[in-house]
From TrEMBL:
Protein's name according to its UniProt entry: Trk system potassium uptake protein TrkA
Residue stretches making up the RCK C-terminal domain: 135-218
Cited PANTHER family: KTR SYSTEM POTASSIUM UPTAKE PROTEIN C, POTASSIUM CHANNEL PROTEIN 2-RELATED-RELATED
Domain of life of the organism encoding this protein: Bacteria
InterPro entries: NAD(P)-bd_dom_sf (IPR036291), RCK_C (IPR006037), RCK_C_sf (IPR036721), RCK_N (IPR003148), Trk_Ktr_HKT_K-transport (IPR050721)
Species of provenance: Salsuginibacillus halophilus
Single GO MF descriptor: monoatomic cation transmembrane transporter activity
Length: 218
């Protein structure tokens, strides 16, 4: 059976989630208190509803309990986001993901039992900062406070060397997960793989080591 999703708040973030879920063939109920927003999304989603989700009765009448996963994407109104999350939790919704506006909001959401808390603006900010610091960094993903994955372009300094020669693990405490070379993807490359200029190298390591790599290598 298809997983059923409900998205509350059809701003830029919630709206983008709705579109992506629909593109993946999922069933989506899109909810917003703003009729215009609901009308905008109604043609694309499985179901659309106008409701203020801080109103318990309205929330119940949507049958929200039966959804596998509810995403709370209410933006600036932190109070409405918290109240909605609290009620979803009390109703026993299986999985709740909430967008947090700031650290205080996140703390409260953690306390009331949101399963997953996302910080899209902050996360994108971190990724873009890594991108602009070094031209060699294509992308950067923080896995936790301690570890990241980074996509780096190999420059002339290391082209022609094997992974073994570079002594990557020892010098940078990082592991090469994969190398993208044109259309090819070399997953878990062996130590005798020779790096070529413009290879895209995907590395996993501690944040400080990855930062060192991004700033000083290639
Ligand atoms: P973003 O930063 O993702 O664009 P916005 O703050 O612009 O977020 O959008 C949040 C959406 O959530 C708005 O469309 C707003 O109408 C909706 N919203 C806010 N409060 C409630 C609520 N209590 N019930 C339902 N929808 C709400």
């Amino acid at each position: 059976m298809k997983k059923q999703f409900a998205v509350i708040g059809l701003g830029r973030f919630g709206g983008s989630i709705c579109k992506s879920l629909v593109a993946e063939g999922m069933e989506v109920l899109a909810i917003d208190m703003d009729e215009e927003k609901v009308n905008e999304f109604a043609p694309d989603v499985t179901q659309a509803a106008i409701a203020d989700t801080t109103d318990e009765k309205a929330l119940k009448s949507l049958g929200i309990r039966n959804f596998d996963h509810v995403i709370v994407a209410i933006g600036d109104n932190i109070q409405a986001s918290i109240l909605t999350t609290l009620m979803l939790e009390e109703m026993g919704v299986e999985h709740i993901t909430v967008k947090a506006q700031n650290d205080y909001h996140e703390k409260v959401l953690e306390r009331i039992g949101a399963d997953e808390i996302v910080h899209p603006e902050r996360d994108i900010g971190v990724r873009i900062a890594h991108n602009v610091v070094s031209e060699n960094v294509l992308d950067h993903l923080e896995l936790s406070d301690e570890y990241s994955i980074s996509e780096l372009v190999a420059g002339s300094t290391i082209a022609g060397e094997t992974i073994y020669d570079l002594d990557f693990r020892e010098k940078y405490g990082s592991s090469i997960l994969a190398i993208k070379r044109g259309d090819d993807m070399i997953v878990s490359p062996l130590p005798d793989e020779t790096i070529q200029q413009n290879d895209v190298i995907i590395v996993l390591g501690a944040n400080q080591d990855i930062n060192r790599l991004e700033n000083h290598w290639m």
